[in-house]
């Protein structure tokens, strides 16, 4: 008999077709309210759960899903996994690394360029009818090329950002990560710096660590105070890696020049959030990996992870902390 799996999002047709060959799919009914109660009801019989990361996989959820064996997340980040709760129940937790690196790195560069050349702000300037033609320096920005980029969290996506910086924009690139990466330093012209050194010397600072207990609030008031006044800060990791109040203060007081943000403590961001009033902030609604091609590949990889894990195959992207 095919295993029962719950799928919490609409799938591309070919991915749905692939899953249906190996599993019996249950999913939300059209127009059904997506309550936690309904989800737990669906999960009560499921052996597999295909999720996009909106639900915490914690004790409460797992207690309501006694038959669950595999949680396949269509995301590379897995901060929604309570790793201890999953480990205690021998749940296999999988994610979708590598295939989204270039797409997320493109967005990081988009945010860097938009902040430094004020693209979003000046688009509003034209639409508001403010363009007179005699603005002079008023509309000038900062160069990206030949400046210094500091990457905090030099993993798969960090490396894709470094490539663009080195080979497309002739930037100098340094990084800070949990440990130094000698192999990477041989392969690419990047150098390791302490976090404090990187913050003090970079024109652009890009945050790309996973959200873990160690990275929660990693960048706060002290870290913003070390940055240069013209520095531009980009966060494409998770909202909680940054102390948002400290970021708002750093921007309001001119401690740093701008910020490009794809992720927030609260998503969707409420309309009355202070970021909305800051012209030097460029925001995107958590769309780092959101292109048709990449989301299609992520969906297929998540489906394959789910099927392979249920079938006991080792061809599965299990998150590092849950590997045997
Ligand atoms: N904005 C988006 O849509 C989007 C898309 C994809 C990924 N992400 C985020 O980006 C993160 C990184 O993805 P990846 O595939 O590059 O992961 P990765 O595991 O390849 O790289 C993570 C890097 O962070 C470093 N790191 C981990 N803990 C650290 C710590 N305490 N201090 C300093 N460095 C630390 C690691 O050493 C590694 O270099 C994901 O976990 C996710 O949160 C966001
Ligand atoms: O981690 C990821 O893959 C993205 O943030 C989408 O959730």
Gist of the model:
Helices cover 35% and strands 15% of the residues. It has 324 residues and is of the alpha/beta class.
Q: Indicate the mean pLDDT.
A: 97
The number of E-state strands comes to 12
- Structural class assignment: alpha/beta
Per DSSP, the total helix count is 12
Strand content: 5-15%
Strand line-up of the largest beta sheet:
8-7-6-9-10-11-12
Please summarize the sheet with the most strands. 7 strands, parallel
Keywords: Oxidoreductase
Enzyme class: oxidoreductase
Domain D-isomer specific 2-hydroxyacid dehydrogenase NAD-binding: 109-288
GO molecular function: glyoxylate reductase (NADPH) activity; hydroxypyruvate reductase [NAD(P)H] activity; NAD binding
Verbal overview:
38% of the residues are buried. This protein has 324 residues and is α/β, with parallel strands linked by helices. The chain is 35% helix and 15% strand. The strands form two sheets. Strands 8-7-6-9-10-11-12 form a seven-stranded parallel sheet, sandwiched between helices. A five-stranded parallel sheet has the order 2-1-3-4-5, covered by helices on one side. The mean pLDDT is 97. The protein has helices at residues 13-22, 36-43, 59-63, 83-88, 101-116, 119-127, 156-169, 182-187, 195-201, 221-226, 244-252, 292-310, and strands spanning 4-7, 24-27, 48-51, 70-73, 92-94, 148-152, 172-176, 190-192, 204-207, 232-235, 258-261, 281-283. Helix 10 (221-226) links the parallel strand 9 and strand 10.
């Amino acid at each position: 008999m095919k295993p029962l799996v719950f799928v919490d999002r609409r799938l591309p047709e070919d991915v749905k077709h692939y899953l249906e060959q190996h599993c019996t799919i249950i999913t939300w009914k059209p127009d059904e309210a997506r309550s936690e109660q309904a989800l737990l009801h669906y999960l009560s019989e499921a052996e597999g759960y295909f999720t996009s990361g909106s639900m915490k996989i914690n004790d409460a959820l797992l207690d309501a899903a006694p038959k669950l064996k595999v949680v396949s997340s269509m995301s590379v980040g897995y901060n929604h996994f309570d790793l201890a709760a999953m480990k205690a129940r021998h749940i296999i937790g999988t994610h979708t690394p590598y295939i989204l690196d270039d797409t997320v790195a493109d967005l990081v560069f988009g945010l860097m360029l938009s902040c430094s050349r004020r693209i979003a702000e000046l688009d509003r300037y034209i639409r508001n009818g403010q363009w007179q033609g005699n603005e002079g320096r008023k509309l000038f920005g900062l160069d990206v090329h030949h400046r210094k980029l500091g990457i905090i969290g030099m993993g798969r996506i960090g490396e894709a950002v470094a490539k663009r910086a080195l080979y497309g924009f002739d930037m100098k690139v340094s990084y800070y990560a949990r440990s130094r990466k000698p192999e990477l330093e041989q392969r690419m012209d990047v150098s390791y710096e302490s976090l404090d050194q990187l913050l003090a010397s970079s024109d652009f600072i890009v945050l790309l660590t996973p959200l873990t207990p160690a990275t929660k609030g990693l960048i706060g008031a002290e870290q913003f105070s070390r940055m240069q006044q013209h520095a531009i800060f980009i966060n494409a990791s998770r909202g909680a890696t940054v102390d948002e109040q400290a970021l708002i203060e750093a921007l309001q007081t001119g401690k740093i020049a701008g910020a490009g943000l794809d992720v927030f403590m609260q998503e969707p961001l409420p309309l009355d959030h202070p970021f909305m009033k800051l012209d030097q902030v460029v925001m995107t609604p958590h769309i780092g990996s959101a292109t048709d091609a990449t989301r299609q590949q992520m969906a297929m990889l998540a489906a394959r992870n789910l099927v392979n894990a249920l079938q006991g195959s080792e061809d599965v992207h299990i998150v590092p902390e849950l590997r045997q």
